[in-house]
Design the sequence.
């Protein structure tokens, strides 16, 4: 186990009707709020009215940034910063999924930065201070509700980059599983794949003897497998939605990665897909993951895949190692198919054309990962296998 | 899954030589420290010198409360409060295991309380404010390094009671597994049993569909089982000590209990044993646990024990339910024996004499638990089975 510093400061209010705590928690930071949301589903669901009524009844003033994109763009961030500066906003409340929360985080960081917002995405060391962020989650997927990271897309440069600062972690997040009852099947599936991918990125690692972390990772993977399909088949199954929602937060709040060297290579490869083609992040991850697994499988890594197959999929440990490993990967692929996710790049409209360019771009900051280090030509092979 | 509010504010600095962060973290709270420790093992190990040198080199003044007992007594708490008041202490640093940290916590709470310290143990609602607490852990067991609870013994009244206040959670704790290399075999065994008991108390629950929490509990139980014996056989095995140490914190920092109704009936029963006989807490827990399990096993609970047997001990799920359940309990008992822990009350000098009195005392605040509610006569039966 490697040394680590543990700090997970986000407070979580979890469960039905937890929105009751909104006003008092907002007021810990001020009474001037920027409400950040996406395409308007929160208006259809009634959540928007609920929140704005709470604000009105508690003398909280609010401004709005709506229309944040599924892969949130730096242009939205810039707009948000302007509203914050013009109105001396004291708290940014994101209502939605990870994109909305990510956008809010970088608005909060950009508020205190003098240059252009894209600078602090490219180089997080330029972030010094962040306006307080809070969130009300409506989609179990990215874990942004309990972590310090954000991913922002720049369409002008076809770049999609992650930035991290400890003060971007939400001060509090409200997780009411009923808010995810209306999430469509395909988004539920993509969200589940996203959660699983976050776990895979830290589970498959060079670090030996992170036994505790690995068993916890398996616990969360089993949770996703147990409830992903159920949530699709029974959208109002509270327990399915609750387990997935809590898994989304715990998968990437560092609990699983403390003490380990971690990968994040599939995320880096996927970010190019959604930067170039604007596809759903979770779908890209689900398509790439089994191909990355097959590519990463070798004599150094086979035991990790055996452990995965036996502990997560319940495979018989007595067989041939490679057979177990391949079988585990097959089960992974089949599960994503069961969730209704496309299993090839061509199904989502991605062909050979830009693969080389994307592979180069994915490795522009250096080789990906350590478990199986990937240079541009490796990434290209994985993209091609996934076509 | 039940509603919950998640807040785990303690920062953890985990790993070799993490004591390097001590001075800067102390100084976040002040420069006048009360150092609380036990019987002097930290002097033998050199840790005392290391800490006091750091204080001297960083202009941190310190006072000392030494000799804190394994079941910390309210008399020690009173002494500590006096030192804090006389010297306007700004931070209390506990160095040791759970007893030392528990004592520090109640000193911190008592500092701001006008009456006698025992009042705030009996009734935690009397706690309003707490001096900042920090810890350097030298024994993996109670989890006090990352939770808000403390257990204090009053020898005059033969009471051992738990008290909780959110501000008693340490601001930071330093967890260096090498500090546990010198923990004797019997204390390593008792500590492991203590960790496992914390997990059992929240794992066996009436709450249905806390799937995620249950899988995580199993992850931690497997960690204890994988490393407990190893740490006894190879006291300087870093990975064994590290996994046990981190398990001790995560077992009881609420991560496993959020969203669940929990038990704590074995702890309540054990507190009477160590209040009346001053035995090691973990030993008492290990003796009582298998008997509590057998007593709690019935048609309502058998599925929980089957899940435990299959997921933790790898038992074949296809057999008769009760057979699996009994087998799981047998494996639990055998594991504690393997660790070298006595398996009956008589082995630790406890006879029939005070059993009735203790059973009455254990239930003085009401029946214990909900999974299998225990009245005084039930507790008595469990004590007798354990004789």
Sequence:
């Amino acid at each position: 186990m490697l040394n680590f510093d543990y700090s997970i400061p986000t407070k979580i209010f979890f469960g039905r009707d937890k929105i009751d705590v909104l006003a008092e928690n907002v007021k810990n930071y001020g009474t001037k709020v920027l409400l950040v949301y996406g395409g308007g589903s929160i208006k259809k669901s009634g959540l928007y009215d609920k929140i704005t009524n709470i604000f009105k009844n508690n003398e909280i003033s609010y401004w709005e940034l709506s229309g944040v994109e599924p892969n949130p763009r730096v242009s939205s961030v810039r707009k948000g910063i302007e509203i914050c500066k013009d109105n001396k906003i004291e708290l940014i409340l994101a209502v939605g999924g990870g994109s909305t929360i990510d956008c809010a985080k970088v608005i909060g960081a950009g508020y205190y930065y003098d240059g252009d917002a894209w600078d602090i995405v490219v180089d997080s060391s330029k972030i010094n201070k962040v306006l307080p962020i809070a969130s009300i989650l409506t989609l179990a997927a990215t874990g942004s509700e309990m972590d310090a990271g954000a991913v922002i897309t720049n369409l002008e440069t076809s770049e999609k980059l992650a930035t991290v600062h400890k003060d971007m972690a939400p001060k509090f997040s409200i997780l009411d599983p009923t808010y995810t009852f209306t999430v469509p099947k395909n988004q539920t599936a993509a969200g589940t794949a996203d959660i699983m991918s976050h776990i895979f990125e830290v589970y498959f690692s060079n670090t030996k003897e992170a036994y505790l972390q690995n068993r916890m990772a398996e616990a969360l993977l089993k949770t996703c497998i147990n409830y992903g399909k159920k949530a699709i088949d029974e959208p109002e199954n509270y327990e399915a939605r609750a387990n997935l929602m809590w898994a989304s937060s715990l998968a990437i709040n560092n609990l699983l990665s403390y003490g380990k060297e971690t990968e994040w290579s599939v995320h880096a490869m996927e970010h190019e897909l959604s930067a170039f083609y604007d596809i759903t992040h979770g779908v890209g991850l689900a398509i790439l993951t089994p191909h990355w697994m097959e590519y990463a499988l070798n004599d150094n890594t086979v035991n990790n895949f055996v452990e995965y197959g036996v502990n997560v999929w319940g495979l018989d440990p007595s067989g041939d190692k490679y057979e177990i490993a391949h079988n585990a990967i097959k089960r992974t692929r089949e599960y994503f198919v069961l969730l209704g996710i496309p299993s090839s790049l061509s199904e989502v409209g991605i062909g050979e054309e830009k693969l080389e360019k994307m592979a180069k771009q994915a490795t522009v900051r250096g080789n990906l990962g350590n478990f199986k280090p990937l240079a541009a030509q490796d990434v290209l092979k994985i993209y091609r296998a996934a076509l």
Q: What stands out?
A: Chain A has a mean pLDDT of 96. The two ends of chain A are 37 Å apart (CA to CA).
